[in-house]
Amino acid sequence: MIATYLVYIMGLFYVMAGINHFLYPSFYQKTIQNFLPYALGIVYISGIIEIILGIGVCIPATRGISAIGIILLLIAVFPANINMAMHAQDWEFSPILLYIRLPLQLVLIYWASIYAHF
Length: 118
Known about the structure:
Elements: H1 2-23, H2 25-32, H3 39-57, H4 63-86, H5 95-113
Helix pairs in contact: 1-2, 1-3, 2-3, 3-4, 4-5
C-alpha cells in the first residue's frame, strides 16, 4: 500500500526536478558543459524528459515504461554527477555531499525499479 503513495512522491520529485531545469538552467548547464556540446539544449531536453517521466509514473497505464525511462535517465545523468564530484571546488556544496550523491543514484534506480515491469 505504501508503494502506491511513494510512486506519486517519485513522480512529483521528477516533475519538480524537470521544472528546475527551466528555472535554473545555468546550474544544470555547468554540470555538463565541460564534456558535452550544446549543454543548454541538453538541459532543456532532459528537463522535458524528467517532467514527462514524472507524470508518466503517476499514470498506471504508463507507469512501467516511465519507470524504465527514469532508470535510463538516472544512468545517463550519472556522468554529470561524477563530474560534479570530481570538480567539487567549482560548487558551493560540500565535496562529501557530492560524493554521497553518487551511491544515492543506486537508491533512486532501485526505487524506480519497484514500478518498472522488466
